[in-house]
Design goal:
The chain is mainly α. 79% of the residues lie in helices and 0% in strands.
């Protein structure tokens, strides 16, 4: 299958820019809305931790399978159709995830939900690359910042509704209504094409695309480590009460969001290569600080530095995909996004293995060295 969209019918402008921001917000908002439902699903189905982990893996597997398909479909049918169908499938899945009590049905729904989120994530980045390239301005950090804001709003609003006594189903129906309203506002100005270049529907990443994908893998691996292991580290290694251990990820996510929201002018001033160099050094130093200085205050400061350092590396990488000529973006974006998601899936499990055979400190220091490698690799990425 090849792209049928050889020439864009319109040049993306302000309305397409705003619709892209809304689409990023929808992606962050809808995936975060699922997180507060996990304990409810565990209790409703009666799962132990091991079975729950395997069930949640279906979400990631669905995402990784769907991403190459999303790139091909976007090239064939345009971003608007893929984003619309993906969002509608997400809206269909969320009420089911809030009510199902059958493990097989839950597994199937999580797979479809993950596939829909993977397609949404991949396609919105394809649209973002096209819009940014047409504008001639740096926009990618701001786009990804809206994803982070959506994540904050989604998790906080659902948690708030549940704490006020709303049932999971009612909370998800509110989320669905909001997503549908946002889609209604964005859809008219989502792109009717998916790539200005043609190419194969599927291809293994190569050259600069493989290099960019490995950078994304490391940064996403770091994000997965913060999500799944920062609280464990604070509780087990720094004596922080379990109820407060989540502050580690909260600090990381806050500085990452702020860094992205204000990142575009910084990227324009410094350039992508320096952003990767300085960001990688900042994140590596932050993780080393959190791991080697034996106080919880140092750990929180370190996690803040990790979030700030990582914040603009991935947006810079996606912008670089829009400039490279090795592979068309409808193939390159799924490739690097899949590698990134691989980091999120493989990273936490790998950290757990290293922590089991040695220590969590060693696992974190290995990631710090990998981030140092990202920093030193920045000079190979032009722009």
């Amino acid at each position: 299958m090849t792209s049928i969209s050889t020439a864009p019918p319109i040049t993306p402008g302000r309305l397409e820019y705003l619709s892209t921001r809304i689409a990023f917000f929808i992606a962050g908002f809808s995936i975060a809305a699922w997180a507060p439902l996990v304990p409810y699903a565990k209790a409703r189905i009666g799962l132990d931790e091991g079975t729950l982990g395997l069930m949640l893996l279906c979400l990631g597997v669905g995402s990784i399978i769907a991403m190459p398909l999303a790139g091909a479909l976007a090239a064939r049918f345009g971003c608007r159709r893929v984003l619309t169908v993906s969002t509608l499938l997400v809206c269909l899945c969320l009420p089911l995830l809030a009510t199902l009590s059958s493990l097989p049905l839950m597994v199937a729904t999580l797979f479809v939900f993950g596939a829909s989120m993977g397609a949404l994530d991949c396609t919105v980045n394809i649209q973002a690359i096209i819009v940014e390239r047409a504008s001639g301005k740096t926009m990618m950090s701001g786009f990804h910042g809206l994803f982070s804001v959506g994540g904050f709003v989604g998790a906080a609003s659902v948690a708030g509704m549940l704490s006020l006594g709303a049932s999971p189903l009612i909370a998800m129906l509110v989320v669905v209504a909001f997503c549908l309203f946002a889609l209604f506002k964005a859809a008219p100005h989502l792109l009717t094409y998916g790539s200005a270049t043609s190419g194969p529907a599927f291809a293994m990443p190569r050259g600069i695309v493989l290099f960019i994908g490995l950078l994304c893998f490391t940064v996403f691996l770091t994000e997965g480590a913060m999500l799944d292991w920062s609280a464990v580290f604070l509780s087990a290694q720094r004596g922080v009460e379990t109820s407060y251990a989540g502050l580690g990820y909260a600090v990381f996510a806050t500085t990452m969001t702020i860094g992205r929201l204000f990142g575009d002018p910084i990227v324009r001033r410094l350039g992508g290569s320096r952003i990767i160099l300085l960001g990688g050094l900042c994140a590596s130093a932050g993780l080393a600080l959190a791991t080697l200085v034996p106080t919880w205050q140092a750990a929180l400061l370190g996690y803040a530095l990790v979030g700030a350092g990582c914040s603009n590396i991935v947006p810079v990488c996606y912008s670089a995909v829009g400039r490279q000529k090795t592979m068309p973006e409808n193939v390159a974006v799924p490739a690097i996004t899949t590698l990134g998601y691989g980091g999120i899936l493989v990273g936490p499990a790998g950290i757990g293995f290293i922590a089991h055979v040695s220590s969590l400190n060693l696992a974190f220091m290995i990631i710090a060295v990998m981030l140092l490698g990202v920093a030193l690799s920045g000079r190979f990425l032009k722009g």
